[in-house]
Design a protein that fits this description.
By secondary structure, the protein is an alpha+beta fold. It has 12 helices and 19 strands. The protein has a 6-stranded mixed beta sheet with strand order 3-2-1-9-10-19, with helices on both faces. A 5-stranded mixed beta sheet has the order 13-12-11-17-18, sandwiched between helices. The protein has a 3-stranded antiparallel beta sheet with strand order 5-4-6. A hairpin with a 2-residue loop joins β7 and β8. The two termini are 20 Å apart. The structure holds adenosine-5'-diphosphate (ADP) and magnesium ion. The site of adenosine-5'-diphosphate has 18 residues, from α5 and α6.
């Protein structure tokens, strides 16, 4: 009867939706474009993303989530309504699907409730809404044996937050969340280019650059790349060449903050579970897991083996999909807030 349940990974950078029995049906940036004059929503997702940094003054392209939590409630509702309706029409769902949606680990009850209510009242016609912690979904999606009495560590690096969690017996034993992830790396690249080359570059150029340099902090890495930006003095467009090895140093600091969080969480992990983690290794998920050289850096800093999950960008949503398939059996992995009335 509930064959059209939805699993939603509501990320700071991307929203991904899974339809039970069908798989991933939507993957779009979490962006909304608004006309400030008329207060009208002009575009959502992919279409809105194309407007970032290119809009006239009265049109703003914004991300409704910041650091993993809802920053703009109305925009989040509008975005969810648009995405859920798109999925319902693509997958020809006419009923009110049950929804399993993710919340970051360790957020407050108020923040959880905001996600729950935004989904329920989005106007897209959904049934019962369940919540699951992102680290739990990521671990399930990465195929970790979360139900066994074995410790597993999953490090999910998204756009706004990085979450480190140790799981055992279908529960989160220790976790740490920090506001240092993909977007901060992009900002570090922007700052570096402005300081060293006197050129302002946009978010998307910085992101592309980050993806190609990674954290190969090796000054022998002599590859160069030509980039276009705006000269901060003349204000005119200018091409310049950037040395990739040097640029990698730009993100060294935020990357080491993420690695420090992994080390800190390991220190806080009960010894029996640490022994399991040493045996099984640390698993990286989220878009940041694809940062070149990050896996090696974590190995070097912790002495523990590291695996990049298959399809790191889809671990969380695939985890929700697996929970939906086995909802009866896996109900104990869901999270609720005592104050929530559903
Ligand atoms: P969220 O869950 O916050 O929406 P995602 O898990 O979707 O985030 O990851 C998005 C982040 O991953 C972005 O900051 C993006 O720049 C980064 N990312 C994606 N691919 C790569 C890559 N190949 N190298 C480095 N970072 C990447
Ligand atoms: Mg995420």
């Amino acid at each position: 009867m509930f064959s059209n349940d939805l699993g939603i990974d509501l990320g700071t950078a991307n929203t991904v939706i899974y339809v039970k029995g069908k798989g991933i049906v939507l993957d779009e940036p979490s962006v909304v474009a608004i006309d400030m004059n008329s207060n009208e929503v002009l575009a959502v997702g992919e279409d809105a993303q194309g407007m970032i940094g290119r809009t006239p003054g009265h049109i703003i392209a914004m991300r409704p989530l910041k650091d993993g939590v809802i920053a703009d409630y109305e925009a989040t509702r509008i975005m969810l309504k648009y995405f859920i309706n798109k999925v319902k029409s693509k997958a020809r769902i006419v009923t009110r699907p049950r929804v399993l949606i993710c919340v970051p680990t360790g957020v407050t009850d108020v923040e959880k409730r905001a996600v729950l209510e935004a989904t329920q009242t989005s106007g897209a016609g959904v049934g019962y809404v369940y919540l699951i912690e992102e680290s739990m979904a990521a671990a399930i999606g990465a195929g970790l044996p979360i139900e066994r009495a074995t410790g597993s560590m999953v490090v999910d690096i998204g756009g706004g937050t990085s979450e480190v969690a140790v799981l055992s017996l279908a529960g989160i034993v220790t976790s740490r969340s920090l506001d240092m992830a993909g977007e901060e790396l992009d900002e570090a690249v922007i700052t570096y280019v402005k300081r060293e080359h006197g050129v302002a570059i946009g978010e998307r150029t910085a992101e592309e650059l980050k993806k190609s340099i990674g954290c190969i902090c090796n000054t022998d890495f002599k590859e160069e790349r030509e980039i276009r930006g705006r000269d901060v003095i003349t204000g005119l467009p200018r091409n310049f060449t950037i040395n990739m090895g040097e640029a990698a140093q730009a993100i060294a600091e935020p990357v080491s903050a993420i690695v420090d969080a992994v080390k800190f969480t390991l220190e806080k992990t009960p010894p029996e579970l640490s022994a399991d983690i040493i045996e099984y290794g640390i698993v990286l998920t989220g878009g940041g897991a694809l940062l070149k050289g990050l896996d090696e850096l974590v190995v070097k800093e912790t002495g523990i083996s590291v695996k990049i999950a298959d399809n790191p960008l889809y671990c969380v949503v695939n985890g929700t999909g697996m929970v939906l398939q086995h909802l009866k059996h896996l109900k104990n992995v869901l999270t609720t807030s005592k104050t929530l009335k559903v």
